[in-house]
Amino acid sequence: MANGGGKTPDRFLVCGLGSLGQYCVALLKDFGVWVTAIDTVEPIAWEIETLPDAVEIGDCRDKRILDAANIRNCRAILLVTPSDRTNLETALQARVLNPQIRLVVRSSKQNLNHLLARELGNFVGFDPHQLPAPAFALAALGNETLGFFKLDEQWLQVVRRQVRPGDRWIGRPVRELNRRSRRLLAHGSKRTGNRADRCHPLFYQWNPNTIVREGDALIYIETMARIETRSREIPIARRFWQQWRGQTWRDWRDSLARFWRRNLQHQVRRVAIAASLTIAILLVWGTLLFRLAFPNWSLAEALNVTAILLLGGYPELFGEIQTSLSVPWGLQLFGLGLTLAGTAFVGVLYALAIEYLLSARLDFLKRRRPIPHRNHAILVGFNPIGSHTIALLQEFRQPLVCVVDRPFDWERLPPIPTVVGKVHEALTQVNLSRARSVIAIANDRIENLEVALMAHQVNPEIHLVIHTLDMRFGENIAHLLPRSHVLCASLLAAEAFVGAAFGENIEHLFRFDGRTVLVTEYTIEAGDTLIGLILAEIAYGYGVVPILWQRSPQGEAQLMPSDDSRLHCGDRLVVLATMEGLRAIERGELERRSVGVWVKSALTPDAAFEGAQTIARISGCNIGTARSLMENLPGRLAIPLYYPQALRLVSHLKRIQVEAEIEVD
Fold this sequence. Notes:
Shape: elongated
Largest sheet: 6 strands, parallel
CATH architecture of the largest domain: 3-Layer(aba) Sandwich
Distance between the termini: 34 Å
Low-confidence stretches: 191-199, 227-244
Structural class: alpha/beta
Strand content: 15-25%
CATH class of the largest domain: Alpha Beta
Organism: Oxynema aestuarii AP17
Transmembrane segments: 271-294, 333-358
Pfam family, one: TrkA_N
Number of helices: 22
Helix content: 40-55%
Strand order of the largest sheet: 3-2-1-4-5-6
Number of domains: 5
Mean pLDDT: 82
CATH superfamily of the largest domain: NAD(P)-binding Rossmann-like Domain
GO molecular function, one term: monoatomic cation transmembrane transporter activity
Number of strands: 24
Radius of gyration: 36 Å
Keywords: Coiled coil, Membrane, Transmembrane, Transmembrane helix
């Protein structure tokens, strides 16, 4: 949790210097902390410009290596090697050496992560393949939704909306768009498609008095109803009854004819059908013969004897009957024929089962769903990130097709259309010219670039989502294909890992104007840089958006809380923040307040009394300062405010008949 820092920089330890580990190092160095890294070998090539302060070569599970990395004085350890086993074993060793260290672990074992978090404490586990999947899926959809997530059983979504003619928001100041269920994040006249400068704040870069006009772009977060993503399942018995109810004899006859024609081309199936009919006839015939030969037998007994003979029970059955009954030799011969026919029928069943097992995998592609004709997503390449992306696209009921260059374990793929072959040939089979988007998600960045260029050549309007492991290469692709979404999965995941390393809980992440926004949860503790501040100071001073506030664990959580709420020890706060916002909170670096409020007059004594209350509530000053100001009008508020805060204060004072105006330095 943010503590304001000290003279000596905090120490952090990163285990594993793959792509994810290197981006974790780079992001940590942006916070001005000391970073030590551990890996079995030193990287041949660095993907980052800012290197760790020290590198230890060896097994991070080794106590001596951890001691050499000064783990006992580290604030957090980020375990991001490719092996879940190594990461979890190292986490246990690190906790023994430093009981207070923050453990941030790369692990796909979600259940084990929850158990360890409960037992060890100060532990968080992330699946780096799952974290970036929403960014890929939402970029592929190419619609107004930028992100969606759940907080305390309430779904929220981030929406980009283009103001069209006749929109009900035209002519209203943008400040009026904020409601208890909605918060404005950005406003611009022609912002869609532009990439934000990472040096500038992402939020609150608009004048609250600006009037919404046709063509403006609005980005906001709002509450939403529960996402219904699955169709209602009909019980099998009811579905069967609905299908066959009302069938006439002609319908039954046609269905039987179609069944026979469909199976006529399979020799084993033809034999199996003929054998089944023969066995059924023999069963009826045998039952009648035994019933006639032994009038004292019931029909069930005769049927039972015939079935036993068909299942190969000739020696046992007639051995017992001969002791008590005289069976005609012709009937015995018929019984032997039944046994031979039954044995042959069992052999046919074995052959049918073997044919099914052998052809199941070979017929896999033929049995898959047909390729969509238009408005579908095409996923080229398949890996764990692709698997999570497919699952999310299916949640949105987005038609899609997967293209892979070679067969593999098909059970890993969900039931979607799949084309196997060379990429440039496979793309000609997936209706590329009418597709909605292409997701080039392979681990080979050159192959992804080739796919993107081919797709752009065939369909210049298609949404391109390109995966890269090197952001420098990705920035070059972005210049080559300006309308594309170039995403580095390692960087997206690293931002969540680093945010969690400072003690925060990263609930979700999404992309917004080319930058990553982290849904971050704080629990306010003594000594935090947030304690004692009102939400307006946190929002405008640190450049984050508070979306949930809860007064103590027993209090009621409030979505889109008021700017006037003040944080106390034990409170819970969830904000939307970029890495720059998290860094500002960690360092306690509030933006300078530069706007003054000049209070001219109050029309009545009641207005003066209520004005003092309003000033104290909105500005955050103590009530004594506010009353002193109202008793000595005209006068200037003793503390400067942020512009949106000052504008809101003047507006509220006007409602209670107190005249005031803004003074900007």
